[in-house]
Amino acid sequence: MISKLNLEDILFLDIETVPETQNFSELDDVKQSLWENKSQYQRRDEYTPEEFYNRAGIWAEFGKIICISVGFFNFQGQRRMFRVTSYYGDEVTILKEFKNLIITHFSQAKHLLCAHNGKEFDFPYIARRMIIHNIELPYKLNLFGKKPWEVPHLDTLELWKFGDYKTYTSLKLLTNVLGVPSPKDDIDGSEVYRVYYEEGDIDRIIDYCEKDTIAVAQIFLRLRGDDLLDNDEIIRI
Question: Taking all residues of the chain, what is their mean pLDDT, rounded to a whole number?
Answer without folding.
Answer: 95
